[in-house]
# Entry
Amino acid sequence: MKRMQLTGIALLLMTGIPVISMAQDKVEADIGADLVSGYIWRGQDLGNVSIQPSASVSYKGFSLSGWGSVGLDKEDTKEFDLTLGYSTGGFSVSVTDYWFDGGPEYFHYGAHNTSHVFEAQVGYDFGPLAVNWYTNFAGADGVKANGDRAYSSYFSIAAPFKLGGLDWSAEIGATPWETSFYNNGASGFEVSNICLGASKEIKITDSYSLPVFAQAIWNPATEGAYFVFGISF
# Structure
């Protein structure tokens, strides 16, 4: 439900946009963690200062990744997400299982007794422009005013660019229809995320640089505005 992959390597990962990748001939794995000043996901405020670890393994375009978030404020929600994906060229597709505490425990998957949200993603990165669509298809999804499942969805368009020696990304995201899942209850089409972010690497030694990033985020639907800073390890 609350994924925001923050890495200083590329701002596209900050906005949840798959990076163009070619199928590799050997298994590749990675682990990392981000320390962020605030947890903002698709224009929504989901927590304060947080540590967000991640791990992934990939082979021939297929990938399996885990991601989590733990806030320093004890009242912040803890989160654990698993994503199975496939990418080739600029095309990507994935399914994510989002889970967060505060409700039914992890192994509860009942239609009306679960804290899991299952989301499907499809997207294409054209290089100068990346487009992604996300839809919840099962789990603790939002509802419409009449109580029906909303199949809550979100789509985004993002463009990377370089300016002043930094890597930048500009993104706009919106909800296409009514749902209680986004923006404290989206009544229909709503622009919920306007984001401008930048990243750079600070040289620490001859062999190590520390990636850092910053984002300015506006949510016109909730009239929220945020500025986030993060460090990747």
In short: The longest helix spans residues 11-14. Residues 11-232 form a domain with the Porin fold (CATH 2.40.160). The CA atoms of residues 15 and 154 lie 13 Å apart. Helices lie at 11-14.
